[in-house]
Amino acid sequence: MSDFFDLVKQLENSSRVGYDPNTMTWKPHTSPESGTDTIAWGHKLSKEEQKGGYVLLNGKQISFDKVNDKVANKLFEQDWNKSTEEAKSFISAKGDWNNLSESKKLITTELFFNMGNRAKVYTGYRDKVVNNDPGFIQEINRGFYKGERKPENFQSLTTRTNKLKAWYNATEKQQMQAQQKEIIANESMKYNQEKYMKNNQFEQIHNDINKVFK
What we know:
Helix content: 55-70%
Oligomer: single chain
Number of strands: 8
Strand content: 5-15%
Number of helices: 6
Strand order of the largest sheet: 1-2
Largest sheet: 2 strands, antiparallel
Number of domains: 1
CATH class: Mainly Alpha
């Protein structure tokens, strides 16, 4: 799971925009999709936060000049947990969140983390993921309008989604290989147990025969 969080952080701010190595603190930077600024690992400031010069962490106001890596990581965790609840509610309208694999839960949560409420329009994604349609992963393609909602202002997030797809496919492959190894190991154990029992039975019969002819 930690490798996925590292990936999301890289996708959000691989260049660490807004980080000051001298003070080791984060400052807000302009959001690509316009609106309020963003700070650290994809935390979109509310209007109140931006106006007040703080971030709200667990109900406590922390001024921008106090947002170090520790605060930034906790802020990411807080935002991620909020997105998880939103993703869970979205999926639960059509299926059972608990039936999803861990990797599918993470991919779904990332959709809400990145898109916010706009992720609710991804009903095609939801239908496929709850029905175990392997094509669900192709439904995460997305983009945003930089400024007015005009075709020429549309910015594709293909690079982001391709990296997410690659992570998911690699993770699923690893899990499948692990399951296959477990099945082979169980079958091998079962075979050895049966072989051991048969050998014991043969030895018992042999001993019984020897007793008869003594």
